[in-house]
Design brief:
Strand content: under 5%
Number of domains: 4
Radius of gyration: 35 Å
Number of helices: 24
CATH topology of the largest domain: Leucine-rich Repeat Variant
Helix content: 55-70%
Distance between the termini: 78 Å
Number of strands: 0
Shape: elongated
CATH class of the largest domain: Mainly Alpha
Length: 416
């Protein structure tokens, strides 16, 4: 059969070759379908009625077999792919723009195309050289491509978007299509320009939640570029009505690790959304500002367990440990949850003084067996107050892995 296909390709036009290959495929399918019937034709005469019915059905199936080339249309009458329209060739191949361009045409062409293999840098270069009408159309396509990361790489290479494209992107943040607004806000966040801040701030109240979240990310990117107005706008967004926006704000304030974010993060500790409070606690732990001690101590009683645990962890690791923090950690030894009492024992142990020694000794009489075992193990390894301390971070890592997991993990049989 391979020889049949090879012979059919010699000396023929491409169209004739394709037809010959399709015909060979049909021959294979028909031969494979009839082979069982031909090989057992002598037995088919004596077959039972169900077997004869199955053979008849198989024959009907073979007759109904369609030529895979039957639906192929060639020549000028074939419908054109959406990838091969004048507008698509203008956007993706750099051909001359057709007349009467509309946003709807650009959106249709840009959304129907996979942008994985398209060079964004090449598209930006064409934006720089384009006429005003073509420039807007190409910038719109750039926004639809959601090309913020590619634009960031473009800027990191030492290049930048032309000024008229910045104005067009600011205009597109008000476009009726949410995908365009999101893409335009994302690109503006990579421009490193203070003039982009007002347009992005407007998207914080956008009707589409994805646009609002992208606006927060863009403000964070601009803040990371040293634009103070962007950082101030990001901090102000902590009061946004959308909890998802507030979570994004807390996340990016945490990532930026800027001491100027401490007041905003402290305020976000009072947010009604537990996820916002968790991220705010983490952010304060990264920054380690003295002014965060009292708010963290208050949130040792937070209704959310992860907020309580984060506040405790940050207090245990703060470089400003003193009597106030020690007293707060000792108070956690009275927590009704046995696991949290074990956690508190580990943190109290790091102080190595008489007051913490007395507190740990008291826990040997705890109602939970695991807590008593944890306290006993700590007392065995307790050091004198004058001996240099192991760094607290090492203590938490070593003894949480060795002591806590072996003797204090899980709840006691009494459930306390």
């Amino acid at each position: 059969m391979r020889k049949l296909v090879h012979d059919s390709e010699e000396g023929r036009s491409p169209k004739a070759q394709r037809q010959a290959i399709c015909a060979a495929g049909v021959c294979i399918a028909v031969f494979s379908s009839f082979a069982p019937l031909l090989g057992g034709c002598g037995e088919a005469r004596n077959a039972s009625p169900p077997q004869q019915a199955a053979a008849s059905a198989r024959q009907q199936e073979v007759k109904a077999h369609r030529n895979p080339c039957a639906d192929r249309k060639e020549g000028p009458s074939a419908p054109r792919s959406s990838y091969d329209t004048p507008i698509s060739r203008f956007i993706f191949r750099g051909e001359k723009a057709p007349g009467g361009l509309t946003d709807a045409d650009i959106l249709r062409a840009a959304k129907n195309r996979s942008w994985g293999g398209i060079g964004i840098a090449d598209l930006i270069g064409r934006i720089e050289r384009a006429q005003p009408a073509e420039q807007r159309a190409l910038t719109l396509a750039l926004a639809v491509a959601d090309s913020a990361l590619a634009v960031r790489d473009y800027y990191e290479s030492g290049k930048s978007l032309p000024q008229h494209a910045i104005y067009t992107l600011a205009e597109l943040t008000y476009h009726e299509d949410a995908e365009v607004r999101r893409g335009a806000a994302g690109i503006l966040g990579q421009t490193r320009l203070e003039m982009a801040v007002p347009a992005i701030v407007e998207r914080l109240s956008d009707a589409d939640p994805a646009v609002r979240r992208r606006a927060v990310i863009s403000l964070s990117d601009l803040a990371g570029s040293g634009i103070d107005t962007a950082f101030a706008a990001l901090a102000d967004a902590r009061k946004n009505e959308d909890p998802a926006v507030r979570r994004e704000v807390a996340l990016w304030l945490r990532i930026r690790n800027n001491p100027a974010a401490v007041p905003a993060l402290i305020e976000m500790l009072e947010d009604g959304d537990a996820n916002v409070r968790r991220l705010a606690v983490e952010g304060l732990g990264f920054i380690r500002d003295r002014s965060a001690l009292d708010p963290l101590i208050r949130h040792l009683d937070d209704p959310d367990g992860m907020v309580r645990s984060g506040a405790q962890f940050n207090l245990a690791q703060t470089p400003y440990r003193g009597p106030k923090v020690r007293a707060a950690l000792i108070r956690l030894l009275d927590n009704p949850d046995a696991e949290e009492r074990c956690e508190a024992l580990i943190d109290v142990w790091a102080y190595h003084d008489r007051e913490t020694l007395a507190a740990v000794t008291r826990m040997q009489h705890d109602g939970n067996a695991r807590v008593r075992a944890c306290a006993s193990k700590i007392l065995e390894d307790f050091r004198t107050p004058h001996e240099p301390l192991t760094p607290l971070g090492d203590l938490r890592e070593i003894h949480r892995g060795d002591l806590l997991l072996r003797t204090c993990s899980g709840r006691g049989s009494d459930g306390k």
